[in-house]
Design goal:
It is built from 27 helices and 34 strands. The strands form 11 sheets. Strands 2-1-26-27 form a 4-stranded parallel sheet, covered by helices on one side. Helix 18 crosses helix 19. It is globular, with a radius of gyration of 35 Å. Bound molecules: zinc ion (2 copies). The site of one zinc ion (ZN) has 8 residues, from loops. One zinc ion binds next to loops. Its EC number is 6.1.1.4. Its main location: cytoplasm. This is Leucine--tRNA ligase. It catalyses: tRNA(Leu) + L-leucine + ATP = L-leucyl-tRNA(Leu) + AMP + diphosphate.
């Protein structure tokens, strides 16, 4: 018998054996029902952090549990391997190539993952930086291009001066680069975009289908898509053959327009001011504002500034002349770059009008009130009755919106319109370490897509890494200079690479066909495995990755490449790992490294702690005592099982006949634990309460072990010990496998079927009730579960200890509370 729990030896032994026997290999198809369990793949930074350990431990319990339940489980792992850190390391250290840096990191992290004992099918490993993968990323780009969903345009884009690249809107958080926190600037650049806006309505509507997603994630996507209904109205410019188009959600307030504002970037500005006396001042203002970040311009406390252009437009509903201004708070990227000023009914317009003494006209009167423009201290944006609005007077807000839109459409002055906050997805990056965009520019033919048979467009290895703000590929003539696939003449390759979110938008399809070099995936395999049944990852991907993946899936569906419209049926967003109340980070110095914990306590303890310390969606507070506690628990399991291992399998696998007393209780607890763990893991992912139940089972087994052998049923013991190990196996795969072997089993515990509980076994046939005398607890009595209140009284009063306590006193009342207690009142 092994005395000591030697986790180092045990974990190394089983990791080696599982790999040799390839027990986590998944066949492409099976008659069994499928289950695709997926954790978001990591960026290969070089080291796992606790957030990773949490993410993958959760996924591993789900995958092992479903496997034991009889599902054919796909549980793969790979690497989101393109991206800036590799290139920045090359710039900083000079002698490290991003490819080598990335592959070294992948090796290190793969080793760490294997040390955690996660049940991945490593034969399906993918890395997005591998030409065999990015060939298909480029192929997918071409499919979008041919469908008219990839296009190039000049646009004012978000530029991170520190990362020296453009960023998608989704990568800008509060005006700063999401990655490095540097304030983002605007630059005019020719860039490639994906037309995600063409899918805005479907992306919004299909959120309803995602019943297995957290509500908060759906709300974040809904807000990001930002659908609003309203009207597009055209205001002709007075004395010019031009018009200003605005979008408003409140066409019912159009009679209240007292001025018009254009974004400084609006293309009409220069035409309006040309030749006017104030033109120079407006130009200076425009130049100054354009250099400010979006956040500086639109923050609610930012000073609103504007300047009159000298020009007027005509309100198409009442024919009034309206002054045109330029102002800092209007952005060209949102809506049309023009806003009609209705100060009485819009707070931002109100503040602006007060500052510049622009007229305020009330056109909505709230019920039971009379708004006076002079006395108003803030805008009134609520419901009411239309006034000062010609033929529309007397209508309510909603009636007014409908009536004004109908009128605009009838007169050809505008139309009802739905607007989205969502912008097209900017995918060009001026960096080396990404998938090259498969496009060439020919002097004669213009933009020419690279033919599919010429893919992949390989990244050249020898380039110079400089933080120039231009892709290093642009300085690599062997890469840039090529011939046109169409006419054979001289051509230049596109030197930008693709946003890495493009690589991660489709990787979950590739796991089904990781080595296919003829196609991105085999259709039959994708039809069998997809959608992902359970996706697990951080909530920080609520918009970017999850929205892009949904968009991609819808495009693939429309292209006839997949049969599903949503990629992820169920989503679990795990909470953060905190220490001392804050997220673990190098700068705070509160990082606990997984390596250290695994070296000191073993992978099973690390996994168990992280699963036991909090429910998966909640934040988890790191606790050294908590880790110690889990380690002690596993030692307890070790001692318990090794002490009864000998001859355990000589007993029948389950007890026969009617059990009584301690045997009945032990048998009952075993089945109650099966029930609890199955429900907690299967229905709710409440791993913490599942582990608690297993801990209680261990405590009970220790007591049961002390019962004299003659009173103990060896079948009850065997059943309890075997089930303890099976229930614990998804959480702590190594120690349970070792103990399973020690107790004499020859087949892996991870190939055992998940047990079901026996409803007969858990029926409660005896309960403990409390005896109170004058409200104080004096005794506990075991009674049959189906006892009547009258019988309860009799049983309690017959207890020797109770008789002694009431001796010589007068019993005033005996009150039975069924199932709980009997209170005796004496005086
Ligand atoms: Zn940055
Ligand atoms: Zn050509």
């Amino acid at each position: 018998m092994k005395e000591r729990y030697d986790f180092r030896e045990i974990e190394a032994k089983w990791q080696k054996r599982w790999a040799e026997e390839n027990i986590y290999k998944t066949a492409d198809f099976s008659e069994r029902p499928k289950y695709y369990c997926l954790e978001m793949f990591p960026y290969p930074s070089g080291k796992l952090h606790m957030g990773h350990v949490r993410n993958y431990s959760i996924g591993d319990v789900v995958a092992r549990f479903k496997t034991m339940q009889g599902y054919h489980v796909l549980h793969p792992m790979g690497w989101d391997a393109f991206g800036l850190p590799a290139e920045n390391a090359a710039i900083k250290h000079g002698n490290i190539h991003p490819a080598d840096w990335t592959m070294d990191n992948i090796r290190a992290m793969r080793t760490q993952l294997k040390q955690l004992g996660i049940s991945y099918d490593w034969d399906r490993e993918i890395a997005t930086c591998h030409p065999g993968y990015y060939k298909w990323t480029q192929w997918l780009f071409l499919q979008l291009y041919h469908k008219g969903l990839a296009y190039k345009k000049k646009a004012a884009v978000n530029w991170c001066p520190s990362c020296a690249t453009v960023l998608a809107n989704e990568q800008v958080k509060e005006g700063a680069c999401e990655r490095c926190k540097t304030p983002v600037e605007k630059r005019e650049l020719e860039q490639w975009f994906f037309k995600i806006t063409a899918y805005a309505e479907r992306l919004l509507k299909d959120l309803e289908l995602l019943e297995g997603w957290p509500e908060k994630v759906k709300i974040m996507q809904e807000n990001w898509i930002g659908r609003s209904e309203g009207a597009e109205i055209r205001f002709p410019v007075d004395g010019m053959d031009e018009e200003i188009v605005v979008f408003t959600t409140r066409p019912d307030t159009v009679f209240g327009v007292t001025y018009m504002v254009l974004a400084p970037e609006h293309p009409l500005v220069e035409k309006l001011i040309e030749g006017r006396p104030g033109a120079g001042a407006v130009r200076d203002f425009v130049r100054r504002v354009r250099n400010l970040s979006e956040i500086a311009r639109t923050a609610t406390d930012a000073e609103k500034e504007g300047l009159f252009t000298g020009a007027y437009c005509i309100n198409p509903l009442n024919g009034e002349r309206v002054p045109i201004l330029v102002a800092n708070y209007v952005l060209m990227e949102y809506g049309t770059g023009a806003v009609m000023g209705v100060p009485a009914h819009d707070q931002r317009d109100f503040e602006f009008a007060r500052k510049y003494n622009l007229p305020i006209r009330v056109v909505i009167q709230p019920p039971g009130m009379e708004l006076d423009p002079q006395a108003m201290t803030e805008a009134y944006a609520g419901d009411g009755v239309m006034v000062n609005s010609g033929q529309f007077n007397g209508l309510s807000k909603d009636e007014g919106i409908r009536a004004v839109i109908a009128y605009l459409e009838e007169k050809g002055l505008g139309r009802g319109q739905v607007n989205y906050r969502l912008r097209d997805w900017l995918i060009s990056r001026q960096r080396y370490w990404g998938a090259p965009i498969p496009i060439v520019y020919c002097e004669r033919c213009g933009i020419v897509p690279v033919p599919e048979e010429d893919l992949p467009v390989l990244l050249p290895r020898d380039v110079e890494f400089k933080p120039t703000g231009q892709s290093p590929l642009a300085d690599c003539p062997e890469f840039v200079n090529t011939s046109c696939p169409r006419c054979g003449g001289p051509a230049r390759r596109e030197t930008d690479t693709m946003d890495t979110f493009m690589c991660s938008s489709w990787y979950y399809y590739r796991y089904t066909s990781p080595r296919d070099d003829k196609q991105p995936w085999d259709r039959a395999r994708v039809d069998y495995w997809l959608p992902v049944d359970q996706y697990i990852g951080g909530v920080e991907h609520a918009i970017l990755h999850l929205l892009y993946s949904r968009f991609f899936t819808k495009v693939l569906y429309d292209l006839g490449l997949v049969s599903i419209q949503e990629p992820f049926t169920n989503l679990l967003t795990q909470g953060m790992v905190l220490k001392d109340g804050a997220k673990m980070s190098k700068s705070r110095g509160n990082v606990v490294s997984p390596e250290e914990i695994v070296a000191r306590y073993g992978a099973d303890t690390a996994r168990l702690f992280i699963l036991f310390a909090a429910p998966p969606e909640r934040d988890l507070e790191w606790s050294d005592q908590g880790v110690e506690g889990c380690y002690r628990f596993l030692n307890r399991v070790w001692r318990l099982v090794t002490s009864v291992a000998e001859g355990l399998l000589e007993a029948p696998p389950k007890p026969a006949g009617r059990l009584v007393g301690v045997n009945r209780q032990m048998h009952r607890l075993t089945h109650l634990t099966i029930k609890k763990v199955t429900e907690d893991v299967g229905n709710r992912f409440n791993f913490n309460t599942a582990v608690s139940a297993i801990m209680e089972l261990v405590n009970a087994l220790y007591q049961y072990k002390e019962v004299p052998e003659t009173d103990r049923d060896p079948a009850v013991l065997r059943e309890a010990v075997e089930h303890l190990l099976i229930l614990l196996a998804p959480f702590a795969p190594h120690i349970t496998e070792e103990l399973w072997e020690i107790t004499g089993h020859t087949e892996s515990i991870h190939r055992q079927p998940w047990p079901s509980y026996d409803p007969e076994a858990i029926v409660e046939d005896e309960i403990t009730i409390v005896v109170q005398i004058n409200g104080r607890v004096r005794e506990r009595v075991l009674v049959p579960a189906d006892i009547t209140p009258e019988q309860m009284k009799e049983v309690v009063l017959a207890q020797p200890r109770v008789q002694k306590l009431v001796e010589g006193k007068q019993i005033v009342k005996v009150i039975p509370v069924p199932g709980k207690l009997v209170n005796i009142v004496v005086k």
